[in-house]
Amino acid sequence: MHEAIDLELEKKEIRNRYRSLLRSAKYPLTKEEKKVIRKAFNLAIDAHKDQRRKSGEPYIYHPIAVAQIVAKDIGLGPISIACALLHDVVEDSDYTLEDIERLFGEKVARIIDGLTKISGVFDQNVSMQAENFRKMLLTLSDDVRVILIKLSDRLHNMQTLESMAPHKRRKIASETLYIYAPLAHRLGLYSIKTELEDLGLKYTEPEVYEDIEQKLNDSKQERVRYIQQFSGPIRKALNKELLYYTIKGRPKSIYSIRKKTLKQGISFDEVYDKFAIRIIINSSPDQEKSDCWKVYSIITDYYKPNPDRLRDWISTPRANGYESLHTTVMGPKGHWVEVQIRSERMDEVAEVGYAAHWRYKDTGASSNARQRESQLEGWISKIRDLLENPEASAIDFIDDFKLNLFADEVFVFTPNGDLRTLPKGATALDFAFDIHSEVGARCLGAKVNAKLVPLSYQLKSGDQVEILTSGKQKPKEDWMNFVVTAKAKTRIKNALKEEKKWIAEDGKEILIRKLKHLKIQFNEKVLNELHRYFGVQNSQEVFYQVGTGIIDNKRLKAFATDRNGGIYNYLKSRFTRRSGSSLRSVQEPQKDRKGDILVFGDDEEQLEYKLSKCCDPISGDDVFGFLTINEGIKVHRLDCPNAIRLQSNYAYRILKARWVSSDRRDFLAILTIKGIDRAGLVNELTKIISNTMKVNIRSLNISGVDGVFDGNITVVIHDTHHLEQLIERIKRIDGVTDIKRSLKK
Length: 745
Hints:
Layout: H1 2-24, H2 31-47, H3 61-74, H4 78-86, H5 89-92, H6 97-104, H7 106-117, H8 126-138, H9 145-159, H10 166-186, H11 190-204, H12 206-218, H13 220-240, E1 245-251, H14 254-264, E2 275-281, H15 288-302, E3 304-305, E4 311-312, E5 325-330, E6 336-343, H16 344-352, H17 354-359, H18 367-387, H19 394-406, E7 409-413, E8 419-423, H20 428-435, H21 437-441, E9 443-448, E10 451-453, E11 465-469, H22 486-517, H23 524-533, H24 539-548, H25 553-562, H26 566-574, E12 597-600, E13 609-611, E14 623-627, E15 633-637, H27 643-649, E16 654-660, E17 667-676, H28 681-692, E18 696-705, E19 708-717, H29 720-731, E20 736-744
Parallel strand pairs: 2-6, 13-15
Antiparallel strand pairs: 1-2, 3-5, 4-5, 5-6, 7-8, 9-10, 9-11, 12-16, 14-15, 14-16, 17-19, 17-20, 18-19
Helix pairs in contact: 1-3, 2-4, 3-4, 3-9, 4-7, 6-7, 7-9, 8-19, 9-10, 9-11, 10-11, 11-12, 12-14, 13-15, 22-24
C-alpha cells in the first residue's frame, strides 16, 4: 500500500515538473509544438518506466530537468526540448533510432543520434574519453544543438552529483572543469559556465569551496548595503537622464575567487573586486552603444576608474558574441567595484549565448541575427578544420583545442583591412596559417604595420599584418616553438612527419644497399640489432638517420665489426628492458639546464624525455614522468596544474622520476670558417647544419668583404663524432676554404 502511495505521489510530481517545463519556454508554444513535446514526454516516460537514478528518484526526472535547462537557461525551441526529453532513450531502452525518425522526423533523429554517440562514454578509459570528445565536437558541424543539449545534460548531472560515490564525483567534476566549462564559455553560455565551474570546484576541492562559500555568506548583508550605497548617486543621475535601467548586484563566482587567489597568490580578503554590479539599460539597437558610454560617463563622474581595467567589448565583441562594457572603479571605503554596462539585448546574449538565441529562435531573422549566425558558422568552420586532420591523436587534439578554449583574443587586420581574431600570444606565423594552410607552410617573413618582423613576433590588437611567402620555403622544426594555435601546430607537425617519412624511405633503400655491401642480409632481426646498437627508438628512426647521414658508412662498418664481438653484446644486455623491448635511447642521457640527469622507475633508468611547458620543471623539483601517445615521456612537476588530472585519469602511464647529480654537460663548439663569398652560401651552410645534420645553432656571425668571407658559428653538440661529420659536410660546400674548431664547456 505504501509503495502505491509513493508511486501516485511520483506521478503527480512528474506531471507538475512537465507543466513547469512548458512554462519555461522563452516564447509562447503553439498547439502543434506542445503536441511534439507531449509526444516526446510520453515516449520518454515509457522508455524509462523501470529505471531509477542513483538517488532513488524516477529516471524521468533527469530528462525533464535537462529539457528545462535547454528551454529556460539556453532559450532553445520545441525541437530541442523534445530532443532533451529523448536524449537517453535510444541508449537506455529498446527504442531504436529508426523508431525516433518514424515518430519525430529526420531532424530530431539526427540530433538524438549525435547525443547517443557521445553519451555514456566518459566512464571508460581515457583514450576513449578523448576520442569521443572529438566525435562530440564533430557533431557541432552538423547541429550545434547536440552540444547545447549535452552541456545541459552535464549541468543537471553536476547538480545531482551528491548521490554518486566520492571517487566518481571527483572524476566527473574534474572532467567538467577540463572539457565542459570551457566549452560553455566558448559558446557564450555565461551562466551555465559559471555554475559548472562552481560545482566542479565543490567536488574537486570541497574544503576550499565551503570556506569561500561561508565567507561570501557571512559578508552578504554587508555587500547588499554597500551596493545600495554605491548605486544611490548613480540611480539619481540615470533618472535625471531619463534612462530606463535595472541595477543588479552580484558576488564574484566562488570558482573565479579561487582562481584569482591562486593566480595572484593572495587571500580571500585581498580579492579587491568581490563587489560587482551590472547596469542593464532598455535601449533601442541604434542607441544602445551611445547609451552604454553615457552610463560609463555618469559612473566615472562619481567614482575614479582604474584605467587598466576598462574592457570595451561593445565596439569589438568577443568571438563568442559577448558584448559589454566593463570598468573597475574605486567606490566608498576604498573598495574596488567592477561595473558591467550593457543593453537588455546584450545581457540576454551574454547569459544565453548567441549560438542558441539567434540560430534557433523561431522568430524572423533580422540582419543582426544573420550576422551572428555568420560569426557562429565562422567558428564552426575553424572547429571543422581541426577535426578533419586524421593524423592528430585524440589526446593531442584535446590539449591543442583546450589552449584555444581558454585563450583571450587579439584582433588584427589583413593588408586589405579584414579583421581576424586570434588567441592572445599568437604570432605572425599563427596569422599566416590562419589565412591559409599553404600561406603558413610557405611563410618566409612578415611585415607588421609595414615593418619587417620575425615570424615569432607576438601580435597585438590593432596590428596590420602582411605575410611574405616563397615557393622554396617549407615548415621547420623550430616553428613549433613559437606557434600557439591548434591549426598551425597541426599543419607543421604533419609537414615535418611527411618530410621525415620521405627521408626514411630513401634511408631504407640506402641501408639495404650498404648492408649488402657489408655482407649482412637485411631482415627484422638485423633491424632490431641496428636500432639497439645505435640507441634509437624504432626502425623508422634508423632509416631516417641513415637518410640524413647521421648513421654513415663508418658507423655501419663499426656495427658490422662489433656484431659478433663483446661491444655489441654488452650494449644489448645493458640497454634492453627485462621485458625484452629496447629502451628509447642509449645515447648521452638528457640533462636539464644545470646539468643534472633525470632517472625513471624503480631501476632508475635513463630514458629520453621532454620537459613539459605547462609547469617548466627544473633540477631539484619533485617530478613525475607521463608517457604520451606521440611525444614519448613528458616530465611534469608534482604540483603542476595538470598533475591531478593526469594522475587520476592516466595512472597506468605515470612513471616515477627523480633528478640525480652529474658533471656531464652539453658542449658548445665554435667553428671558425673562411672562404670565397657567393650568393646563397650562408643559406646552404645553415641548411646543412640545422636540417641535414640536425644540429642546433646557438649563434652565427659571418661577414664578407671584397669577395671573401670569414666568421664564427657556435653549435650545441653532445658527440664529437657527430661534430666531425658536420665539419666534413661543411668542407664540401663550394667556396669554403678553411674550417677549424675549438671546444668550450
